Amino acid sequence: MVRFVNVGVSFIGGYQALNNINVEIKRGEFVYIIGKSGAGKSTFLRLIYADLLPSRGVVSIEGRDINLMSRIEVPFLRRQIGVIFQDYKLLENATVFDNVKLGLDIFYMKRSAARERIWPLLKRMGIFEKRDDVVKNLSGGEKQRVAIARALINDPKIILADEPTGNLDQENAENIMTVLRECIDTGATVIMATHDKLLREKYPAREIELEKGKVIRDEVKNEL
Amino acid sequence: MSSKLTYLFMRGVIRFFTILRGNFLSFLTLITVIFMYHIFWVAGTGTAGFLNHLSQANTIRVYLANNNDIIAEEILSSIKVLDNVTNAKYYSQKDAKAFAVANAPKAAALESFSEEFFPSFIEIYPSDTLEETLDKIVTEAGHIKGVDEVSYGKEYMVKFKAIGRGAWVFITVMSILFALSAVFVVYNTIKLSLYKYKEEIKLYSLVGATRPFISVPYLFGAFFLSLFAYICSLIIFAAAFIPFNSHILIKAGINIYDMPNITYFIFSCITVCIIGVISAKASVVSFLKQVSSINED
Questions:
Q1: Least crowded by CB within 10 Å, which of B88, B90, B153, B217?
Q2: Nearest CA-CA distance, residue B215 and chain A, Å
Q3: Interval A172-184: pLDDT, tens
Q4: What mean pLDDT value characterizes chain A?
Q5: pLDDT for B36-73, tens place per residue?
Q6: Cβ distance B207 to A79 under 8 Å?
Q7: Are strands B121-126 and B85-91 parallel, antiparallel or unpaired?
Q8: Partner-chain contact B207 A79, CB within 8 Å
């Protein structure tokens, strides 16, 4: 599903964000990417949704080398990937519904047709009542659920979560974990970058630990 | 395909109104540029047309060595048989004064002048206005006995032609400058709008929007912006020019400026719209290059 072969990422100035990464993540796996700030977790995720290209090595998603993908192919790759960020990356002045609808707009879907897809998902996320609320009026936990709804609206094969619980309290963090665990049941692969040790202990899974851009540990715990 | 286009078209309409609301000053600037171009075009082409008219010789004038009517009639007969002469007419001193008075209605003082101040002449009407034909007639008429001078104002024609050509070069250069101004205005207007919706565009990229999905609404938006600016400029131009021309210029004896014909308006409107769309495309491409990364501020 996701494969890194001798992957290195260097930024301008020579800073090595990732160095010689060799990782393979199978379909349906739940994987934590852990490490201190600046270890390369976000860079690891950015490579998967082709927001960044490797300076060296090969990143392949479902057998396709992202380096060889044309600019036209990248959006079609991203449609198979749902991304969740710590800072939510929502349109603060738009409604919950409109934020989730972004993922359907790209299929030229009309509002009425989009409603049939969005409403059940919002119910599942527990934010159906907030569907017409402007995002800036929501709590952090609600915002993150909106972000997850947007990521899940197109039934992605891969879900990337970059510190999704970083801004949330324990209760909301666990709610988010419950939703992400459910995604595994639908056959999706979840790759989650996190600092949260408590969550990892409560929901054990494969852990890939990065330090200074290198994999220093790749350990499978009790898999989710 | 058509439903996709309709969807993008509707997004373009929405984008147009948001551009209009968010960048109204840019819209006014675009109207001003197009309005100025209309004025420039009318002034430029009117002047060039006037100079072109002045550089066309329709007749050749023959001045006689003396003002004897009998000799003049003989000369007239000799002229009429020359090659390329369609007709010729003799103007006695009395006719010459009447001719001058008729052609200068504002110079009332001419009436008080004695006929002696108006030399008799023969006006030749050539078969065509080619310089070569005119020169040949001038040479042949100049050899007829009793002819003092033959002229069609060649030296002035050459000057007027040169100025007329210069006017067209000036019009062309200014057209390019106005077009460039419109390009920069639309380019920057779209760029401002793109930056306003930067986060939304990044999110669309994140969820897998193609470049046409992001850019086409802006192209439609720029098209409507250009079209609407053109229509507004045209209304302002017509409202300003028609009364100014009829109440001031024509009354002042300046009758060389006309409202451009429909071909000009159609052509210039299409040009403005094409400029708008191409500028918007360049703006979107440049913007997407600058903000190619989603998860980076």
A1: B153
A2: 12
A3: 888 888 888 888 8
A4: 90
A5: 999 999 988 888 888 888 888 889 999 998 888 888 89
A6: yes
A7: antiparallel
A8: yes
What does the alpha-carbon distance between residue A207 and residue A221 come to, in Å, rounded to a whole number?
7
Ordered by where they begin, the domains of chain B are: 2-54+158-290 (no CATH), 60-152 (3.30.70.3040)
The token pair that represents A158 in the structure block: 């891969």
- Say what the pTM is: 0.81
Chain-centroid distance of CA A154 in Å reads: 13
Instruction: Give how far B55 is from chain A: nearest CA, Å.
Output: 59
Calpha distance A77→B294 (Å, rounded)? 15
Q: For residue range B61-114, list pLDDT tens digits in order.
A: 999 988 888 888 999 999 999 988 999 999 998 999 898 888 887 777 888 888
Whether A78 sits inside 8 A of B210 (CB atoms) is: no
| Minimum-distance CB partner of A108 among B7, B200, B296 | B7
pLDDT for A143 equals 92
* B23 within 8 A of B123, measured Cβ to Cβ: no
* Residues on chain B touching A41 (C-beta within 8 angstroms): none
Helix or strand holding residue B166 (H, E): helix B154-196
Which residues make beta-bridge pairs with B61?
B123, B151
> Distance between CA B99 and CA B91 in Å, rounded?
8
Q: Which of A71, A77, A102 sits opposite B204 (nearest CB)?
A: A102
